[in-house]
Amino acid sequence: MDFNNVKISIDLKGGGHETLSITIDSLLAIEKYLEVRNQRYLGAEYSPFLFVTNHGGIKKISHRAIQNIVQKYTTAYLEQVTHAKSIKGLSPHKLRHSFSLVYYEKNNGDNKLLSDQLGHSNLNTTGLYVNMADGTRAEAIERVSEALNNEE
Known about the structure:
58% helix; 6 helices; globular; mainly alpha; two-stranded antiparallel sheet; 152 residues
């Protein structure tokens, strides 16, 4: 984590490495999380991983654990926002797509900027995220509509 320049370094699929800009709010939230994590898991401050477990020593959490966490908290958020019960949360993949669409729209459709933020080396890959925008929006509206109808 680079707190001075508001950036994080991440390891990518396939062994790549990337340094990305993040929001100051996100960095502050990570800083608070690290305080709690380091108190809860002795020795975690020496780990290069953000999310750790202490089962068998301090080590990174599994991909499945990340999926479960994202599912749990997006479900809780969606239930709170829609006031509906039994809404299914998002997978990390869908969360990444949702972020991509908002990022793209808020940056005037700059495909290159989004590609850089996502760590894509090929603009065609980024195009898959952007071209889904209309379909994703329609699906999102449908989910909200279903949630509201289930509430009645």
